[in-house]
Amino acid sequence: MPKNITLICFFALFASTSFAQTLQDNFEGTGNVTTWFGDDCNINNAFINPFPSGINTSATVLKYDDQGGLYSNVRLDVSKNFNMNSHSRFSFKLYVPSNGISGNQTNQVSLKLQNGQLASPWATQCEIIKTVKLNQWQEITVDFNNDIYINLDVNSPSPTQRSDFNRVLIQLNGENNNDKVVAYIDDFLHQDTIIIAPVFNKLVWSDEFDEDGAIDDTKWFHQTKLPAGGSWYNGEIQHYTNQDSNAYVSNGMLHLVARKETFTDQGITKTHTSARLNSKYVFTNGRVEVRAKLPLGVGTWPAIWTLGQNIAEKGAYWEQQGYGKVGWPACGEIDIMEHWGNNQNYISSATHTPSSYGNTINVAGQVIPTTSTEFHIYALEWTKDKLVFSVDSVVHFIYNPDVKNTSTWPYIDPQYILLNIALQSSISPNFTRGSMDIDYVRIYEEGTNSVEPKLATRTPFFYPNPVLNTLTIQLNNLIEQLAIVKIYSADGQLIITDTILATQNKLEVNQLNRLPSGVYFADFSLNNVDYKLKFIKQ
Predict the structure, then answer these.
(1) CA–CA distance, 22 with 33 (Å, rounded to integer)
(2) pLDDT band at 62; cut points 50, 70, 90
(3) How far is it, in rounded angstroms, from Cα 329 to Cα 343?
(4) Distance (Å, rounded) from C-alpha 485 to C-alpha 483?
(5) Overall CATH class of domain 17-196
């Protein structure tokens, strides 16, 4: 089955090279900020200065008009992440008239930094709060290197040790209140060293599974040798075999199949079989994409993952080639996707290193309502600094230890891909067959790809979040086509299906006012690329 190789180029996730740039806006039409957005707050970034006095006599300013929204703020996004270690100061002028505020909130302004690429951008937020004087223009300066800051997640490192910030929020008088605030902002400034993201757009290895029959043995190796003791780890009950019935290609798909059958191998009889494939290709740094649909049922445990080429594991392909030098977890393990059938709508990603392994603390995941009914793109981006895990471009886990040594960061040596379905002892007696269907496996590195990407801009983003009635999905591409948007509840129930015409680079999902408050997912496809967005209904 022919496939369109489509690149989704993430922006602002990884450090590569940098250059100095000034981010500024004087609201006179000569600034370089084009992404101002009022979140539950009306804004006018060309408003006539109502108080031309003191330190600010400019003609126009940004008007901030919060009419009582709980989370009102004005924000801007940048296309390249901030380097907070090099430049940590932000400044702007502010005027808050006394007749523009209500309630008894402390008069203050917050400047918050977030990762706007996260489904919940506030999850790793860092904030500095300054007091505000009324009825006068004042210069507000925040310095994330010297001022007292607040990490929403107390486990987050200090802001100057981070490189994931690409969104700035300015918020008056806090949140979680219904008080009104009118204020005026001018002369926003940030001198920064911008981090440029490497573009992983050179396809260096792939299997598109276009030839029906057995797996391509120039690309894959069946790992079947049992570990010492006669059983696989974690109480698994299957034999891994090299039978075509456990791994075969049909209709443009790899079908990795777990089956209930009595099978004897290596002198040991088991009641179930499955397949465990090792790639005959190794890589260091790059992007891995696997488009897959997962099996259904308690006791199934499919995984897409990697191990170090240097693992000394008897029966593994690279150990047989003479590369086995260290044990596990010294070799490093990267779990791109794991799915347990007893937690049907949840997928997990993790790292295993000498510093944390087994029941590792380095793990996170997300709810995917259609893991076993629809295909999703499970991806890893690996640079010298961090590992980033996503599903359909929605990031759920970033591994970036502050200290990188052999204990925390064995990811300096090549890794190879593994695909398998393990079976747990909790498998139902009625289980007969479960399949992980894989459309393709692709590995990209930096470079120029001979295949022209259909989509080479940043992933669509959406606003507002939380949403009341209308969710706007900003596409950043000139697209005029219909898209089927599906809204799912957090437990995977399909709530809304709507066919929407994408116009003016936007999809607008309306009639959300009939949804109860909670977490939802919006699924849609454009240009043969599937997207999933997680949002909160207020």
Answers:
(1) 10
(2) very high
(3) 26
(4) 6
(5) mainly beta
Strand, helix or coil for residue 364 = strand
Distances 504 to 239, 283, 374 between C-alpha atoms, Å: 54, 40, 29
124 three-state secondary structure: helix
Confidence band for 405, pLDDT divided at 50, 70 and 90:
very high
Among 28-37, 134-143, 255-264, 327-336, which stretch is predicted with the lowest mean pLDDT? 28-37
Three-class secondary structure assignment of 305-334:
EEEECCECCCCCHHHHCCCCCECCCCCCEE
* Selected catalytic residue, list 127, 319, 333, 381: 333
pLDDT at 449: 40
Structural domain boundaries in the chain = 17-196, 207-282+293-370+410-438, 461-537
E-only strand ranges, 231-275: 238-240, 247-250, 253-265, 268-274
333 is catalytic: yes
| Rg (alpha carbons) of the chain, rounded to whole number | 26
Q: Which one is predicted more confidently, 138 or 84?
A: 138
For 136, 171, 174, 311, the CA distances from 139, given in Å and listed in that order, are: 10, 15, 19, 57
Q: How many CB atoms lie within 10 A of CB 466?
A: 15
Among 11, 346, 332, 382, smallest CA distance to 166 is for: 11
| Mean pLDDT value of segment 316-325 | 96
Q: Please check whether the domain covering 207-282+293-370+410-438 is classified as CATH 2.60.40.1120.
A: no
Report pTM: 0.56
Q: What is the CATH number of domain 461-537?
A: 2.60.40.3080
Examine residue 2 and say whether the peptide bond preceding it is cis (omega within 30 degrees of 0): no
CA dihedral 64, 70, 73, 77 (to 10 degrees): -150
Please state the length of the chain.
Answer: 538
User: Would you call 508 a catalytic residue per the annotation?
Assistant: no
Catalytic residue, chosen from 127, 338, 381, 445, is: 338
Q: pLDDT tens across 476-509, in order?
A: 554 567 788 888 887 778 888 888 877 666 778 8
CA atoms of 338 and 201, how far apart (whole Å): 26
Separation CA 411–CA 362 (nearest Å) = 14
Domain 17-196 shares a fold with domain 461-537: no
